[in-house]
From TrEMBL:
Keyword Metal-binding attributed: yes
Chemical reaction(s) catalysed: DNA(n) + a 2'-deoxyribonucleoside 5'-triphosphate = DNA(n+1) + diphosphate
Residue segments, region Disordered: 537-568
A single GO cellular-component term on record: DNA polymerase III complex
Biased composition (Acidic residues): 559-568
Enzyme Commission number(s) of this protein: 2.7.7.7
Domain AAA+ ATPase: 37-179
UniProt entry keywords in alphabetical sequence: ATP-binding, DNA replication, DNA-directed DNA polymerase, Metal-binding, Nucleotide-binding, Nucleotidyltransferase, Transferase, Zinc
A biological process term (GO) from this entry: DNA-templated DNA replication
Sequence similarity: Belongs to the DnaX/STICHEL family.
Species of the source: Ureibacillus yapensis
Membrane-spanning parts: none
Protein known as: DNA-directed DNA polymerase
Length: 591
C-alpha cells in the first residue's frame, strides 16, 4: 500500500476525534439526536480547520444504520463506504474545478431522484465561492426548496464572496483557528501512534508555524518526522520549519534591554543572511513579547505560551520590563509589520523599528534606578528655568507691576529671533546645540554621503529632499535647510522617513546622525543671530591677525563662519536680487 500523508491518515472520523470547534460539534449533535436537521448548511473558516471533515462526519451520522445518533458508528456498510468515498448518495463536488453552470445543472437534475441505499442524499460542495454567478443563480431555487431527501453542505474559506441570497438559505457555522494546545495534543497522538520519541518544545514550534491550521501542522510534522532520525528534536523542527530558537530571541531582547542596539542589529543581519524573512521575524518578536506579558501577569498562564517555555530566565527577563514598555514594543512592531507588506526593503523597516524600540525608556527599570542614576539633566534645567520665571513674576506682582504678555520674559530670550514659518516651527533650541558643537568634518561627511543616501530612497521620498541642503552638523545631529516650507514640514513630521534616511547615512558614514529640519529663510536669520550672539566674527578676525603675526596658537575655526561673513558683507541689492531670481541666475561684476 502506498504511503499516505499524516493529514489523510489521521483525518477525524467522528465528532469525538475532532479538535476544537466545540460550538459546531454540539449544535450538530443536538440536531441529530432531536431529528431537527435542516436542508442546507454553510461551513466557513480558515484552511485546515476541519470544514470538509465535519461535513463527511455529519453525512455519516445522517445515514448511519444506527441513526438517530450523535456519533457515526464507523462500522456499518454505509459509514465505511462514506469513509472510503465510494457511497453513491454522498457526492463531493469541487467548485474550484467545476464552476460552470453546466455542472450545477447536472446536480440539480439528479437531486430530485431518491437516494439509492441511504436515508439522505448529501451534496458536499467544497470551495463554493468559486462558482460562477450563473451557477449560483441555478442553485438558488433548489437550495431554497430541495426535495426532503436532499441535504446541501457548502464549504468555503471566503464567505464574503457568496451572494447574500445563498447565505440566507443556509445554517451558517463559522470554524475558528485551532489553538496551539489543540494542535499539540493531536500531534502527540500521531507520534505516539508511530512510536517516535519527541521533544515537546519541537511540537510547540510546529504548532506556531501552522498558524491555527491542523492540516498545515500535520503536513509540517510529516516533513519533520521524515527529516529526523530516532527522535524528533527541537533543532530539526527549527531547521525544517524555518523558525528561530527561543534562545536567539532571549539574547536579542536582553541586548535591547541593555540598549546595545549594535548587537541587536548584528543579530538581525545574521538571521537575514541565513534566509530568515524579516516579516516573519517581526511576527515572532511580537509573539515573544506577548509571551513575556503572560509570564509577567501570572504563572497560571504558562499553557498559553506559544514561543517560549516557562523557564526561570524568561520569567526573570519578563519582570525586568514594565508592562507599558512591552505594550509599546508590540505596538511599534505591529505598525511596522503592516508597512513592511507594501515595501521591498523589509529589513530596513525592521531595523528602524528596533532602533525606535531602543529609544523607549523602561519605566520599571528607571523607577528602581532613580536613586543611583539620578534625574535627567535636561529635566533639571527646565525645572530651574520655570522656577526662575515664577520667582520673577512673584516679585513683579509684589511690587504692584502687572505683567503683560511676555513682559516677564528675560530680555535676552525676547531678543532671540523665532525660527517660525506659517506652516512649520523649527526646533530652534536643538539647532543651536548643533551649531555650538558643529565641526567641518561632520558636515563634510554628511555632504559626501548625501547623494548615495538619496539613491537608496524611493523616488517619491527622495523628491522631498530635492530642494534641500545640509548646512551644519555635529557628532550627533545635522541641520538641513529647505527651500520650500511644505517640504520641510512633511519631512520633519514623518518620523519613520527621517529614521530610515538617518540609518542610510549611518551605513555610509559609520555614525548615526539625527536629522533636524528648518526652512531656508529661518535658517539665514537664525545663523546670523547665532554668529552675533557668540561673537564669531571677532574670533575670525583675531584668528586672521594671529596668523598674520606668525602666532602658533591654535584657534578653533567655526565650520560655517566664512559663509556667514559672506552673507553679512553682501550688498542688500544683491541679496534682494538673489531672492527674486535665485543665486544661480545672478552674477556680480566688479566695475
Amino acid at each position: 500500500m502506498t504511503y499516505q500523508a499524516f493529514y489523510r491518515v489521521y483525518r477525524p472520523q467522528s465528532f469525538r476525534e475532532m479538535s476544537g470547534q466545540t460550538h459546531v460539534k454540539r449544535t450538530l449533535q443536538n440536531a441529530l439526536l432531536a431529528n431537527k436537521t435542516t436542508h442546507a448548511y454553510l461551513f466557513s473558516g480558515p484552511r485546515g480547520t476541519g470544514k470538509t471533515s465535519t461535513a463527511k462526519i455529519f453525512a455519516k451520522a445522517l445515514n448511519c444504520e444506527k441513526a438517530p445518533t450523535n456519533e457515526p458508528c464507523n462500522e456499518c456498510p454505509t459509514c465505511l463506504s462514506i469513509t472510503e468515498g465510494s457511497h453513491p448518495d454522498v457526492i463531493e463536488f469541487d467548485a474550484a474545478s467545476n464552476s460552470r453552470v453546466e455542472e450545477m445543472r447536472d446536480i440539480i437534475e439528479k437531486v430530485r431522484f431518491a437516494p439509492a441505499n441511504a436515508r439522505f442524499k448529501v451534496y458536499i460542495i467544497d470551495e463554493v465561492h468559486m462558482l460562477s454567478t450563473s451557477a449560483f443563480n441555478a442553485l438558488l431555487k433548489t437550495l431554497e426548496e430541495p426535495p426532503p431527501h436532499a441535504v446541501f453542505i457548502l464549504a468555503t474559506t471566503e464567505p464574503h464572496k457568496l451572494p447574500a441570497t445563498i447565505i440566507s438559505r443556509c445554517q451558517r457555522f463559522d470554524f475558528k483557528r485551532l489553538s496551539s494546545n489543540d494542535i499539540l495534543e493531536r500531534m502527540k497522538v500521531v507520534l505516539e501512534d508511530i512510536n517516535l520519541p519527541y521533544e515537546e518544545q519541537a511540537l510547540k514550534v510546529i504548532a506556531q508555524a501552522a498558524a491555527g491550521g491542523m492540516r498545515d501542522a500535520l503536513s509540517l510534522l510529516d516533513q519533520v518526522v521524515s527529516f529526523s532520525g530516532e527522535t524528533l528534536t527541537l533543532e530539526n523542527a527549527l531547521l525544517v520549519s524555518g523558525s528561530i530558537s527561543q534562545d536567539v530571541f532571549f539574547e536579542m531582547v536582553s541586548s535591547l534591554k541593555e540598549k546595545d542596539i549594535a548587537k541587536v542589529l548584528t543579530s538581525i543581519e545574521e538571521l537575514s543572511a541565513d534566509g530568515k524573512d524579516p516579516v516573519r521575524l517581526a511576527e515572532d518578536l511580537i509573539t515573544f513579547f506577548r509571551d513575556l506579558l503572560l509570564l509577567q501577569t501570572s504563572s497560571d498562564l504558562n499553557e498559553l505560551l506559544e514561543l517560549i517555555s516557562p523557564e526561570d530566565k524568561f520569567t526573570q527577563l519578563a519582570h525586568e520590563f514594565s508592562a507599558d514598555t512591552l505594550y509599546t514594543y508590540i505596538d511599534i512592531l505591529s505598525k511596522t509589520q503592516q508597512e513592511m507588506r507594501f515595501s521591498h526593503h523589509t529589513k530596513i523597516y525592521l531595523e528602524t523599528a528596533l532602533l525606535k524600540m531602543g529609544q523607549v525608556s523602561n519605566s520599571a527599570v528607571s523607577a528602581q534606578a532613580v536613586g543611583s542614576a539620578g534625574i535627567d539633566p535636561a529635566v533639571n534645567e527646565k525645572v530651574a528655568n520655570l522656577e526662575k520665571m515664577v520667582q520673577q513674576l512673584t516679585m513683579q506682582l509684589a511690587n504692584g507691576v502687572q505683567p503683560q504678555g511676555n513682559a516677564a520674559m528675560p530680555q535676552k530670550e525676547a531678543a532671540r529671533p523665532r525660527a517660525k514659518s506659517n506652516n512649520y516651527n523649527a526646533p530652534v533650541g536643538r539647532i543651536r546645540e548643533v551649531l555650538k558643537n558643529a565641526t567641518k568634518q561632520d558636515i563634510h561627511n554628511i555632504k559626501n554621503a548625501w547623494a548615495q543616501a538619496l539613491s537608496q530612497l524611493q523616488k517619491s521620498q527622495a523628491a522631498l529632499l530635492a530642494e534641500s541642503e545640509p548646512v551644519a552638523a555635529s557628532g550627533s545631529a545635522f541641520v538641513v535647510k529647505f527651500k520650500y516650507d511644505i517640504h520641510c514640514r512633511m519631512v520633519a513630521e514623518n518620523r519613520e522617513f527621517t529614521a530610515v534616511f538617518s540609518q542610510a547615512l549611518a551605513q555610509i558614514t559609520g555614525n548615526m546622525y539625527e536629522l533636524l529640519c528648518i526652512p531656508e529663510t529661518d535658517w539665514v536669520s537664525l545663523r546670523q543671530s547665532f554668529i552675533k550672539e557668540n561673537g564669531l566674527n571677532q574670533k575670525k578676525e583675531t584668528s586672521d591677525e594671529s596668523q598674520g603675526s606668525g602666532s602658533t596658537d591654535h584657534i578653533q575655526e567655526d565650520p560655517f563662519l566664512d559663509d556667514a561673513q559672506e552673507v553679512a558683507s553682501e550688498d542688500p541689492l544683491i541679496t534682494e536680487a538673489e531672492k527674486m531670481f535665485g543665486k544661480d541666475f545672478v552674477e556680480v561684476v566688479e566695475d
